[in-house]
Design brief:
151 residues, single chain, 9-stranded antiparallel sheet
């Protein structure tokens, strides 16, 4: 019995540990304000959990329902995190009972000089069909700098 217990302890000690940390990104300029936060694990591809974010587009020509959005894990179709870059792709469509529209936010960063700090660029695109009678949809695009922290 002691040998079995010792073998179990050795097996647990030899297995890799999967720690968790977090990430946060902020953009704040005269076009867009956003905050993104998430937990992230260091094992099995670095999956995110408790993902949430808010985006506010400051241009009043963008429809109100597309200007202020909350993002959840379902709105993060792609992300990448390693010691070379942090990339997030957020996408959210307008509610189905209204004409088609969406907000697409892409964040591309690289590690900075200080541990855990990442800096880079964001690009945001908005597509709004406005209504069924409108021939040309409205679009909006902006880009700027973003800063992120990963622990």
């Amino acid at each position: 019995m002691r040998q079995l217990a010792a073998a179990a302890i050795l097996a647990l000690a030899a297995s890799p540990s999967f720690a968790s940390g977090g990430l946060s990104c902020t953009g704040d300029d005269d076009k867009v304000k956003f905050d993104i936060e998430s937990g992230v694990t260091s094992g099995m591809g670095g999956p995110v959990f408790n993902f949430r974010g808010t985006v506010e587009i400051l241009d009043t020509s963008v429809a109100e329902d597309l200007r202020r959005l909350e993002f959840a894990r379902d709105h993060l179709p792609q992300y990448w995190l390693d010691n070379k870059r942090l990339s997030l792709h957020l996408y959210r469509e307008r509610d189905a009972d209204k004409p088609h529209g969406y907000v697409d936010l892409v964040i591309e960063t690289q590690p900075g000089d200080d541990e855990g700090l990442y800096g880079g660029q964001y690009e945001i695109s908005v597509f709004d069909t406005v209504d069924e009678a409108t021939v040309e949809p409205r679009t909006y695009q902006a880009s700027g700098t973003v800063s992120c922290f990963v622990e």
